[in-house]
Amino acid sequence: MADQKTDKNGVSDKSSGLITDFDPPKPPKRNKYAFACAILASMTSVLLGYDIGVMSGAQKFIQRDYFDRYWCNDTQIEIMVGILNLYSLVGSAAAGRTSDWIGRRYTIVFAGAIFFTGAILMGFATNYAFLMIGRFVAGIGVGYALMIAPVYTAEVSPASARGFLTSFPEVFINAGIMFGYVSNYAFSKLPLHLGWRLMLGIGAIPSIILAVGVLGMPESPRWLVMQGRLGDAKIVLDKTSDGLEESKLRLADIKHAAGIPEDCNDDFVQVTKRSHGEGVWREMFIHPTPTVRHILIAAFGIHFFQQASGIDAVVLYNPRIFEKAGIVDDTPQLLATIAIGFVKTMFILVATFFLDKIGSRPLLLSSIAGMVVSLMILGIALTVIDHSDHKVPWAIALCIAMVLAYVAFFSIGMGPITWVYSSEIFPLRLRAQGCSIGVAINRTTSGVLTMTFITLYKVISIGGAFLLFAGIAAAGCMFFYTLYPETQGKNLEEVEELFGTFFRWRSRQSELDRKKEAQLVANKAQD
Question: Does position 506 have pLDDT exceeding 50, yes or no?
Fold first, then answer.
């Protein structure tokens, strides 16, 4: 303190060397290269989002067109709308192995090419059977896209921004839904036989943009290590890390997970068969460790509850929901759907900026709790309208408000965190296949729900359907509270260590119980 200098006003000189004289360290800036890679990869999710959004309105015009010339009832419509999710199982099942074989980047190109073909087929469909063929092809492309986008983004992202960047696929799903809603409104005034074809066919445009943009993307560093290409992986890690020190740590972690000695500095090495995917299914389902078992339950559970809580029913069938609420004209219905798309897009952007600051667990629990409340109120309001002989303005307004609240709560947590969690918690050796199964569960649940929603609400009423979804969401809330640890700030290799605690505790308790029982038997034998 004796050396501290002051000016004539008594203010200390900043060159005095005191700790308080120095500015606090600034947080590292977001890596722009990793940011650009995440955007390009996540654009594949636009394909699913656009199909969901456009089918919500196009189904009405398809039914009117085909009902006049052929015969198209509600059952055929709900099958047509929901079956793309089941078709996507083919793509998601093949995507894990494909991405391990040709790489994450070229799998993205492949997904775009398949969806492009499906969109063209749907746009030129001349009858219901032709349309279903287009849905099948597009569904395969969607399955590939849903699996590969979060996997690639997680593997290329630094730990400091992984939650932010891995939530991008959900951002682009919502952007695609918004574009689909706008497309419905824009083409709704065209002749009936032309409007819905343009709504579906224009979905080929994002595929073209994706194919061009992906040429500037690097391959995933984890996939490069799995192929033994350590030199190429180091180049990518240097570009996508927050610093060279982090790049070295990430490379060391990946090499350890792939079974490569840490002191190996060769540009190319021969990788053991285990890191190419052999034995993955045995390790996941036949002889899983407590940690792997916990990861499987967590990853598959979050995919199930995301869809079983009714989000695709709201997004795909909201014109019917608004019709049941008393809004019967096409134009107000389509404008209301645009409002849903706008709210979903805005709140998903909020979630992406708070995910790495707040953490995934608080956002997830807040999201699912808000969904439970909004679904309950929506179900009650629809029940009131259903049992009234005249319009109930307050109930109609409440229905619209609760639909918007529901999609907002979904978008701040349940929507993006499902993809963040499922892409980051699997160990490297299990990631591709594990994420593929997670997508399969997600799409199967969505397919079953969307293919039966019309039938469901005809049986238990529209209000009863949403009260059922509220009960499922409440069960999901308890599930997440019990089994989900916080992964904020952890690199992908550290995340694995967070899981398995619950099952290891159960295993230790069982072992202690067995020892106590054996001791009691031994004591009785001595007596």
Answer: no
Q: Where residue 137 falls among pLDDT bands split at 50, 70, 90?
A: very high
Q: Tell me how far apart the alpha carbons of residues 308 and 479 are, in angstroms, rounded to a whole number.
A: 13
CATH 1.20.1250.20 fits 32-502, yes or no: yes
Mean pLDDT over the full length of the chain: 80
3-state secondary structure 164-190: HHHCHHHHHHHHHHHHHHHHHHHHCCC
Domain extent listing, the chain: 32-502
Dist CA 444 CA 199 (whole Å): 25
Q: Which amino acid is at 394?
A: W
CA–CA distance, 490 with 5 (Å, rounded to integer): 44
* CB distance 278 to 228 below 8 Å: no
* Crossing angle of the two packed helices 45-69 and 74-102, in degrees rounded to 10: 150
Radius of gyration of the chain, Cα coordinates, nearest whole angstrom: 26
Measured in degrees and rounded to the nearest 5, phi and psi for residue 244 equal -65, -30
Paired tokens of 426: 């699997």
Contact in structure between 229 and 151 (CB atoms under 8 Å): no
pLDDT in the model for residue 477: 93
Cβ atoms 198, 190 nearer than 8 A: yes
Query: Is it the case that residue 406 has pLDDT exceeding 90?
Result: yes
Nearest by Cα to 142 from 212, 211, 220, 49 = 49
Structure tokens at 329: 């004209």
AA letter at 114: I
**CA 312 to CA 292: how far, in whole Å?**
29
The set of residues, in sequence order, having a beta carbon less than 8 Å from that of 229 and lying 6+ positions away, is 267, 268
Residue 19 CB-density burial (10 A; 0-12 exposed, 13-18 middle, 19+ buried): exposed
Q: State the pLDDT confidence band at 492, using cuts at 50, 70 and 90.
A: low
The pTM of the full predicted model, rounded to 2 decimals, is: 0.71
Q: Which helix (H) or strand (E) holds 11?
A: none
Which of 277, 357, 368 is CA-nearest to residue 30? 357
Asked if 162 and 35 touch (Cβ cutoff 8 Å), the reply is no
Q: Are 441 and 303 in contact (CB under 8 A)?
A: yes
E strand or H helix at 306, and its extent?
Answer: helix 290-308
Closest of 97, 102, 140 to residue 227, by C-alpha: 102
264: left (phi over 0), alpha (psi -120 to 50) or beta: beta
Q: Look at residue 69 in the predicted model and tell me its pLDDT.
A: 57
Residue 369 has a pLDDT of 95
How far is residue 526 from each of residues 513, 514, 520, 522, 523, measured CA to CA in Å?
20, 18, 10, 6, 5
The C-alpha atoms of residue 207 and residue 217 are separated, in whole angstroms, by 16
pLDDT, tens digit, 9 for 90 and up, residues 49-78: 888 888 888 888 888 777 555 556 778 888
H or E element: which one contains 28? Answer: none
* Residue 498, φ and ψ in degrees, nearest 5: -75, -25
Distance CA 353, CA 438 (A): 25
